[in-house]
């Protein structure tokens, strides 16, 4: 035991002393490298927080579905309803719209323009709420509707609403730029929300999530994603953890994957591992593997950094946001 170093524990117990008495723990001063096989880190001198039972931790209790006003959201709502029924989840529907802002006023017209814009927003919001409630009319799910009208970019307000949810569900519109004006900016939502985001390809209305691929990389984002994705992984028939690595790092990749598979097993998930030598484009490789393995969900970390008020995204992240025909669960 070091004075300031963390203890990395593979199991959580109601108190620390009985746990230490069993001697079933591993100590490290480098939580980053070895956190792939641990559930919790404990620093002595701080109070240990008791983790909820696995049955509770394994459920998404609240879903937040992001609707686009003035568009058909039926496929997205069908998937959300099915997810809610599987886990008996509370469902929040939210739509955001930005009030028209003019760079300069036009005498005699400004007031009329603003009034017409607000009337259109109100109509679209009312229609979106009706569509949301109609999709759940034969469901036992508890519902809440939130309409957000703002002068800020809609994503700023949508990201703040995620405080109420365990999982966000949003449709990826491949016909629009990921940085589209008043539409849902998915990159911003994923990178700023602090919640896992389920990206559903446009028009997709089924999510079996029975054959799941985890895009692994021994990095914070991937560790966060695989933890956030546990409810899906536990319910899947098959889970394949894939790491694409430089040819001279394949042995290290297999070692990392073995830890991840062991960690998943402790959570009741039987997983397989695949270490693949990299080619020029990881995104294309992952897409090819997903197709070959008949995957119906990809769980991945979202990688990127802010640059000039926009997100410079990693290649795989960009591909999953814009080009993938397979639903993806992303966490940053």
* Secondary structure: number of strands: 15
CATH class of the largest domain: Alpha Beta
Terminal residue distance: 32 Å
Helix/sheet category:
alpha/beta
Major sheet: size, sense and barrel closure? 10 strands, mixed
Fourth CATH level, the homologous superfamily of the largest domain: HUPs
Helix content: 25-40%
Helix-strand topology string: EHEHEHEHEHEHEHEEHHEHEHEEEHE
Strand content: 15-25%
Number of helices: 12
Task: Name the assembly state.
Answer: single chain
Mean pLDDT: 78
Based on the model shown, name its key terms.
332 residues; alpha/beta; Rossmann fold; 3 domains; 10-stranded mixed β-sheet; 3-stranded antiparallel β-sheet; 37% helix; elongated
What does this structure look like?
- The chain is an alpha/beta fold and 332 residues long.
- It folds into 3 domains: 7-51, no CATH class; 56-201, HUPs (Rossmann fold, 3-Layer(aba) Sandwich); 211-331, 3-Layer(aba) Sandwich (Rossmann fold).
- It has 12 helices and 15 strands.
- The protein has helices at 16-22, 31-34, 54-57, 74-87, 110-135, 154-161, 186-193, 220-228, 230-235, 250-266, 282-292, 315-322; strands at 7-9, 26-27, 40-42, 62-67, 90-98, 143-150, 167-172, 197-201, 211-215, 238-245, 271-277, 297-301, 304-307, 310-313, 328-331.
- The chain has a 10-stranded mixed β-sheet with strand order 6-5-4-7-8-15-12-9-10-11, sandwiched between helices. The chain has a 3-stranded antiparallel β-sheet with strand order 2-1-3, with no helix packed on it. A two-stranded antiparallel sheet has the order 13-14.
- α6 (154-161) runs parallel beside α7 (186-193) and α11 (282-292) crosses α12 (315-322).
- Mean pLDDT is 78; it is low at 6-31, 42-57, 174-182 and 307-313.
């Amino acid at each position: 035991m070091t004075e300031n170093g963390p203890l990395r524990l593979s199991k959580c117990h109601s108190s620390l002393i009985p746990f230490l008495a069993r001697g079933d723990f591993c100590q490290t001063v480098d939580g980053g490298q070895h956190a792939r096989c641990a559930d919790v880190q404990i620093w002595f001198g701080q109070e240990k927080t008791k983790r909820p039972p696995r049955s509770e931790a394994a459920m998404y209790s609240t879903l937040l579905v992001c609707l686009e006003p003035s568009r058909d959201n039926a496929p997205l709502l069908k998937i959300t309803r099915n997810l809610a029924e599987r886990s008996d989840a509370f469902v929040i529907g939210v739509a955001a719209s930005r009030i028209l802002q003019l760079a300069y006023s036009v005498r005699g017209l400004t007031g009329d323009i603003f009034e017409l814009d607000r009337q259109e927003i109100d109509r679209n919001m009312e229609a979106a709420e009706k569509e949301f409630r109609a999709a759940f009319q034969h469901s036992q799910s508890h519902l809440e509707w939130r309409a957000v009208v703002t002068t800020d970019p809609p994503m700023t307000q949508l990201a703040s609403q995620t405080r109420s949810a365990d999982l966000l569900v949003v449709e990826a519109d491949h016909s629009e730029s990921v940085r589209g004006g008043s539409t849902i900016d998915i990159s911003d939502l994923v990178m700023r929300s602090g919640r896992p985001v389920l990206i559903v390809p446009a028009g997709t209305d089924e999510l079996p999530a029975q054959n799941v691929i985890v895009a692994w990389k021994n990095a914070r984002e991937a560790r966060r994603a695989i933890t956030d994705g546990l409810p899906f992984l536990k319910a899947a028939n098959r889970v394949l953890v894939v790491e694409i690595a430089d040819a001279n790092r394949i042995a290290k990749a297999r070692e990392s994957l073995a830890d991840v598979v062991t960690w998943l097993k402790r959570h009741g998930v039987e997983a397989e591992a695949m270490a693949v030598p990299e080619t020029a484009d990881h995104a294309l490789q992952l897409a090819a593997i997903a197709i070959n393995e008949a995957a119906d969900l990809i769980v991945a970390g979202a990688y990127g950094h802010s640059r000039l008020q926009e997100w410079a995204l990693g290649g795989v992240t960009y591909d999953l946001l814009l080009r993938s025909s397979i639903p993806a669960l992303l966490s940053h």
